[in-house]
Design brief:
The complex is a heterodimer of chains A (170) and B (631).
Chain A lengths: L2 H4 L10 H15 L9 H22 L1 H11 L14 H16 L3 H27 L3 H32 L1
Helix pairs in contact in A: 2-3, 3-4, 4-7, 5-7, 6-7
Chain B lengths: L21 E6 L4 E8 L2 E4 L9 E2 L1 E3 L7 E2 L1 H9 L4 E3 L35 E3 L2 E3 L1 H20 L3 E8 L5 H13 L3 E7 H13 L3 E8 L4 E9 L2 E10 L4 H18 L8 H20 L2 E8 L2 E8 H26 L8 E5 L6 H11 L12 H15 L4 E3 L6 E5 L3 E6 L7 E7 L9 E7 L9 E8 L12 E7 L5 E7 L4 E6 L8 H13 L1 H31 L5 H19 L3 H31 L4 H9 L1
Parallel strand pairs in B: 1-10, 10-11, 12-17, 14-18
Antiparallel strand pairs in B: 1-2, 2-3, 2-4, 5-6, 5-7, 8-9, 12-13, 13-14, 15-16, 19-20, 19-22, 21-24, 22-23, 24-25, 25-26
The chains are: A mainly alpha (170), B alpha+beta (631).
Amino acid sequence: MDHFARLGLPATLDVDAATLDGAYFAAQRQWHPDRFVARPPEERAKASTEAAALNDAYRTLKNPLSRAVYFAGLHGVELPGDGQTIDDPELLMEAMEAREALHESATAEAVDTLAARARRDMEQALAGLGTLFLRHDNAAIRKALLRLRYLDKFAEEARARRTNLQRVKA
Amino acid sequence: MSLLEIHEPGETPLPHAGEASLAVGIDLGTTNSVVAIAREGVPAALHDEAGRALVPSVVAYPDAGGVVVGDEARLVMVREPRNAIASIKRLMGRGAADLHTVAGVLPYEVEPGSGQTDMVKLRIGGKPRSPVEISAEILKALRIRAEAALDKPVERAVITVPAYFDDAARTATRDAARVAGLEVLRLVNEPTAAALAYGLDKGSEGLYAVYDLGGGTFDFSLLRLEKGVFQVLATGGDASLGGDDFDRAIAERMLDERKRDGIADEIDEPAVKTALALARQIKEQLSDHGQASGRLELAGKPSFHAIGRPDFEAMIAAHVARTVDIAGNVLADAGVAAPDVQGVVLVGGSTRVPLVRARVADMIGKPALTDIDPDEVVALGAALQAEALTGGGDTLLLDVTPLSLGLETMGGIVEKVVPRNTPIPVQLAQEFTTYQDGQTALAIHVVQGEREMVGDCRSLARFELSGIPPMTAGAARIRISFAVDADGLLTVSAEERTTGVAQRIEVKPAYGLSHEDMADMLYDSLDNAETDMTQRLLAESRVEARRNLLALDAALAKDGTLLTVEERATIDEARARLETAIAGDDRDEINAAAEALEAQSKPFAERRMDRGIRDALSGLSVGELESRVGE
């Protein structure tokens, strides 16, 4: 069963956060192990497996990037595993330049500017994904997702850098 | 209850046989522990005879023999410092490298050789004892208190743990409960329990944070509350940061001042214990006063120390700043800005420190919520959850993993399999492969923590998947699965997918207990079972006797006219003797007095029965009487 079906949701790229939460809470009310404390071991084991699957589904669909990657997987677009080398020279260049800028930024404000740009780029790329899926342009989808994954990582690095800068200051 | 139901005291070994056992909530704290029960959604802490809810988490093995817990153990600590231990929670699932000293000295004696690759053991009262068995004594004392207060056997509990407790510490807590004869319904994270107590109380909705600074641990959790759902969005903390650190800072200061004044101290374990006890008093005074002072006497040499609040705040500023840092990271993890948090709940005695309150209020931009006693709120939440788990309830607790779980890969790098803040229960798997031609085994090293290198994370378990058929490097497909259950406990299994060679292990953390340790402890607890049994029987006799007194009083109020003045005087006298016996500690005396009272009141009981029968029969015709008998 795919993650959308498990939560009783239509398989779409965009998912309303409140709808997702509602479906998830309702399903957990049924399957959470807390509801099975007094039940026989087999039922408890089943509940635990179901609840874990629900958590996996929820976690995957909650985050727009992991949801897009999962949705793409359902449509036959496979991405290399995390930490694999980037095979897109254009993206490689963008990533190197951004990392350099992050490395050179000496204030929290400078880091914030870079992080805000990364977030904006992410939003734009996510918004553009729908059209690519409509065109069934799997190569473009793959390229866009790899870029999104990089941007996400960059935002995380920016956060770490910011924390470090503040710690040095304090 | 009629007076006829007075039992032969000797013939009621189990007055509660057949009754369902109750489930309680237990906050097993670093400094104090609390047991509570919830009935129909209303939680209450259980008090001792003196009305105290807090049981100091101190265990003592006095020279006189036996084990004592709580206030009594605190007294032993003053008299016989080497026979008592406080703050044992800090050592749950810990090794020797995790211990904190004062002036280079530990406030306890570590059993030589322990704590290198296993859980550290302490030498107390001349015997090596593990943190698990010491914690079990606290849990046992709480169980006995609950049974006395509730007049029912208590065999099941929800026990709270710091959200940031790692797998080793959680497992150790579960083991301690087992040694204490308690079935753990669920380990619940302390901040989540606190939110439960607040949320149900207030019917709140929205984003709430819980700032929990106890004696030895710090947790910060962000939750979303919505229609009975308590969803933890992110959590973080430090399992080794708390009020004890504040005490240590003050103790170090006092010892430095003595040195400065030319007092040559031989600092040993009892000296450190004495200094820490005074430091704690000073710290507590500083919560209400701008200045506090105390007299420290070590080896007959007294010194006088005065500490102002600004001094104290300077000493602890770095610790408090660290908590605010951690809180900021938790908010960032959840992608939530501080102003969006509707309220922050303060939990733990250390949140009474004014600097802590001020910093928390600064961070969130609103004053913190403190309406529920910060010492009791966690136990109250645990009690609510215990009721929900046994009686059914509509609340839903959705918690997360506090720390990332991963595997060591080539070069000592950690590959994360379950990231922190993943909702639990969770089952996630990752595939690995062999890196040498013909490789037939794979060493699997499970670690917990956020750092990239294995050496910086906590090692949980090592095992080997063997019997992989020889293949070229990279051809094997080894799937390693991590399952974290609703208690936050981890199980790891590995499987070679091309051939189906499977191996499954319950992760027994490196700092956990071996089966032998566990068996020893269970035997030990049997050794102490006699003492436990005596205490339990005493409690039961008291409860039983009180119940009979109540029944007698009710009967006297209703049918007192059946007695002559002399008879009444005899009963009153026997009644008074039983009251005195209940106040004492001698079970035989209570039973004897109860028996005497029963003998004295027997004619009264018989007369009441006669009257009861007459009343029931009066006005009935013989026909009606026969049909009644037939019923």
